[in-house]
Amino acid sequence: MFGNYLIGLREGLEASLVVCILIAYLVKTDRRDRLAPVWLGIAAAVVLSMAFGAVLQFGSSSLTFEAQEALGGSLSIIAVGLVTWMVFWMRRTARHLRAELHGKLDAALAMGTLALVVTAFLAVGREGLETALFIWAAVQATDDGVRPLVGAALGLLTAVVLGWLFYRGAVRINLAKFFTWTGAMLVVVAAGVLAYGFHDLQEAGWLPGLHSTLFDISSTIPADSWYGTLLKGVLNFQPDPTALQAAVWALYLVPTMYLFFRKSAGSAGSAPRPAGPAPTGAVAADAVGD
C-alpha cells in the first residue's frame, strides 16, 4: 500500500505542479478568461487516464491465464521503463520546468482556445497515463485489488492538497530533495515490479526457469503474515523468487540507484533560495526550482 501511495504522491504532485504553474501564469498575466480551456484540457486528461486504467483492468480479465500473465509481465516492464525515465527526467529538468511550460503556454495563447486545451491535456495526460499504467502493474504484482488502489488514491489526494497549498502560498518545501528521495524509493518499488513482471512472463511460458527457485524462506516470512504482507505491499517482496527474478531485481536496482544518486549529486550545488512567504499564485512556480 505504501508503494502505491508513493506512486500516487509522486506522480500526482508532478501533475499538480504543472497545473499550478499554468494557472498561476494566466492569473499573473491577467488572462483569467483563458482559464476555462486549461481546466477543460486537465479534465480530459484525468478522464483519459481513468479510462486507460479501466481498460487495462477489465480488458485483461477476459484473457486466458497465459495471456493475462504475458500482458501483465510486458506492461510491467514498460511501466518500469516509463517510471525510470520519469524519475531521471524530473531530476534533470525540474529547475527549468516553469520556463518550459510558460513558453508552451505563450505559444498556445497565440494559437487560440483549442491549443490551450491541447497544451493542458498533454501536460497532465502524460503523468496520468504513466500513473495508471504503473499502479495497474503494481496491483497485478501484489495480487490485491483493494489496498494498492486505496494507497494510490490517498497519494493522489495528498498531491492535490499539496498542490493547492503551493498555489495559495501556504507551503514551501525543497522540491529537489523531495524528488530525490521519493525518486530513490520509487526505484526500489520499480525493481520489485520489474522482477514480478519477469515472473509473469515465466508463468506465461515466454521465459524459462519458472521452477528454478533461488531460495525459499516462506516458513520464516509467510506470505500471509502481517510482515509478509507489508514487505509485499511496499517492496513487492517474494519469499520464494526464481533465480531470474532475483537476477533482474539486482541488475536493475544496483546500477539504477548508483546512476540516480551520482546524477543527483552532480546536479546539486546551486545556492538555496531564502525561505519566506511568496505571493499567491507564484509559489508553485517558484518552488519548482528549489
Write the layout of secondary structure elements.
Layout: H1 2-28, H2 35-60, H3 65-93, H4 97-111, H5 113-142, H6 147-168, H7 175-203, H8 226-235, H9 243-267, H10 283-287
Helix pairs in contact: 1-4, 1-5, 1-6, 1-7, 2-5, 3-5, 3-7, 3-9, 4-5, 7-9
Describe this structure in words.
- 75% of the residues lie in helices and 0% in strands.
- With 290 residues, the protein is mainly alpha-helical.
- Helix 1 crosses helix 7 and helix 2 runs parallel beside helix 5.
- The longest helix is centred in the middle third of the chain and has 30 residues.
- The C terminus is likely disordered.
Can you summarize the main beta sheet? Answer: none
Q: State the helix count.
A: 10
| Rg from Cα | 21 Å
Give the amount of beta strand, in percent: under 5%
Distance between the termini: 29 Å
Portion in helices: over 70%
What is the tally of beta strands? 0
Shape: elongated
Uncertain ranges: 268-290
On the 0 to 100 scale, the average pLDDT is 79
Structural class by sheet pairing and helices: mainly alpha
Q: What sequence of helices (H) and strands (E) makes up the elements?
A: HHHHHHHHHH
Quick summary:
75% of the residues lie in helices and 0% in strands. With 290 residues, the protein is mainly alpha-helical. Helix 1 crosses helix 7 (175-203), helix 2 (35-60) runs parallel beside helix 5 (113-142) and helix 3 (65-93) runs antiparallel to helix 7.
